[in-house]
Amino acid sequence: MDTNKPLGLTASVGFQIGVRRTLPFFQEEAWELLTSTRGRKLWLGDATSVEFVKGHKFVTQEGTTGEFRVVKPLEQLRLTWQPVSFPNTSTLQIRLLSATNPGKTTISFHQEKLESAEQREEMKAHWEEVISGLLALSDEKFIR
Fold first, then answer.
1. Cβ(8)–Cβ(17) under 8 Å?
2. How far apart are CA 123 and CA 81, in angstroms?
3. Which residues of the chain have pLDDT under 70?
4. Which of 76, 80, 75, 105 is CA-nearest to residue 13?
5. Distance between CA atoms of residues 7 and 5, nearest Å
6. I need a surface site. Which of 3, 38, 98, 118 has the fewest CB within 10 A?
7. What integer pLDDT is reported at residue 140 of this predicted model?
8. What confidence score (pLDDT) does residue 14 get?
């Protein structure tokens, strides 16, 4: 076993990062939050015409580009993701997982095909910030 391998480096998809947290709302509410204008702005960026359908391409005002590859309402989004500062395209997957307690949902962000440990750390911080922002929106009683 190679103990010198950098954290998050895989043989097949480059660097990857996963960030997840269980939040205090039902799966339907979590989906509504993620796909709402305010929620979407946190994780995707400021994009005016986003359709959550397979094959839909987007460009945000910040310059992030991508295409939705998998859209399973209430469960999963998988898309290509390339911020303007990235020379490469990565793959982002967002999953909503039922928690064992009713009224709670685990939101999971998983990103792969990152090109460096630095890019991995940048995205780890970003997804942690996004989850905190989603929690803040729910605290504002955005959903309920």
1. yes
2. 11
3. 1-3, 139-144
4. 80
5. 7
6. 3
7. 67
8. 82
Contacts of 140 (CB under 8 A, 6+ apart): none
**Cβ of 118: how many Cβ atoms within 10 Å?**
10
Separation of alpha carbons 10 and 131, rounded Å: 25
pLDDT of residue 143: 44
- The Cα 137–Cα 72 span in angstroms is 23
Reported pTM: 0.88
Q: Which two tokens stand for residue 111?
A: 């990103």
CA dihedral 37, 139, 28, 33 (to 10 degrees): 10
Which residue from 84, 34, 78, 32 is spatially nearest to 53, judged by alpha carbons?
A: 78
3-class SS string, 108-140: EEEEEEECCHHHHHHHHHHHHHHHHHHHHHHHC
Q: Which of 66, 71, 69, 85 is nearest to 123 (CA)?
A: 85
